[in-house]
Amino acid sequence: MMNDASPPVHDFDAGELGCGTGLPGEVRRRLAALPIGERLRIATRDPSAREDLPALARLLGQRVVAVDPAGDTTIITVERTR
Questions:
Q1: What residue spans define the domains of the chain?
Q2: What whole-number distance in Å separates Cα of residue 64 and Cα of residue 40?
Q3: Is 17 helix (H, G, I), strand (E, B) or coil?
Q4: Per DSSP, what are the bridge partners of residue 76?
Q5: Which tens digit of pLDDT belongs to each residue from 8-18?
Q6: CATH fold group of domain 9-79
Q7: Angle in degrees, 0-180, between the axes of helices 49-59 and 23-33, rounded to the nearest 10
Q8: pTM higher than 0.85, yes or no?
């Protein structure tokens, strides 16, 4: 029997928080609080986060699942792997 259960996803709307105003630290803190295998879906309006947050996630040894533009917002999904 195949297990189709998706890992739990935790949503984080970063609001006006940007890469220069603490967003990387907040993402790092939230990822560290997740059990391994769960995902953090970050909604950000900071244009630089589209490149910076996936790079940060990879640097931390986490898996970037998706980077999806949605109008003026980018949705970045990261799975905690360690």
A1: 9-79
A2: 10
A3: coil
A4: 42, 67
A5: 999 999 988 99
A6: Translation Initiation Factor IF3 (3.30.110)
A7: 40
A8: yes
